[in-house]
Amino acid sequence: MTRKLYIYDHCPFCVKAEMIFGLKNLPFERIILLNDDEAGPISMVGRKVLPILEEEARFMPESMDIVTHIDQQGTPVLTGTPNPAIADWINATNSTLYRLYLPRAACAPLPEFATTAARAYFVQRKEEFTGPFFEILKDSSVEIASLNKMLEMLAPLIRNPEAVNGTLSTDDIHLFAHVHSLSLVRGIQYPPAVEAYRQAMSRRSGVGLYDTIAV
Ligand SMILES: N[C@@H](CCC(=O)N[C@@H](CS)C(=O)NCC(=O)O)C(=O)O
User: Which of 33, 141, 149, 205 is 20 to 30 A away from residue 24, measured at CA?
Assistant: First the structure.
């Protein structure tokens, strides 16, 4: 069976959906839509949202529904118990991360922004929430320092580079998607435990980091 996963490369929810295929070594067709393609997702699930999984002409939205569905094919891999401290850490860093991330994603050489119109669509919609991107990009030093401090607090929570709590769990899906977005921000300093985790999860999930295009 060929499964198709419709995604935007920059989208952390799409990263979650992609990860489970890599973690389970299951093949899939990776299809990146232009960010201003409204008709495509609407024709599949009735609203403009990605990721979407297409399986035997049926369409499934919602990243964690996709993760659960794919994990249930054969032997599940996400068998570990989540640690609430990981969700707390993600929540505590979420707004700072996405304030830094969105303007950088908007400049990045990603396929969903292959046309000027697609990039402009993203900028216009996201700036409604964040304010002008150019203002955010002028100086990120305070936010970067705060994230660097938070990463020092994440390090002791990582029990194993191969799985944050020792056994793969949904925490790995949420945490790696988060640090994947962070990899687009230049100047972030990763404590050794966090660096080992980023690299191991990138390898295991097949989702590459943005380090080489960080802004
Ligand atoms: N709850 C959804 C949220 C997905 C979501 O918000 N996706 C964003 C991209 S990161 C989206 O498609 N937003 C509409 C848009 O970009 O126009 C999930 O977990 O899959």
Answer: 33
pLDDT at residue 116, rounded to an integer: 98
Measure 13 CA to ligand 1 centroid, in angstroms. Answer: 7
Total domain count for the chain? 2
Ligand 1 pocket, residues with Cβ under 6 angstroms: 8, 11, 13, 48-51, 62-64
Mean pLDDT across 158-164? 98
The pLDDT value recorded for residue 2 is 87
If residue 170 lies in a helix (H) or strand (E), which one and from where to where?
helix 170-182
Range of the domain at 119: 84-213
Residue 1 pLDDT exceeds 90: no
**Domain of 97: which CATH number?**
1.20.1050.10
Could you tell me if 64 and 16 are in contact, meaning their C-beta atoms sit under 8 angstroms apart? yes
- Mean pLDDT score of the chain, rounded to an integer? 98
Cβ atoms 137, 186 nearer than 8 A:
no
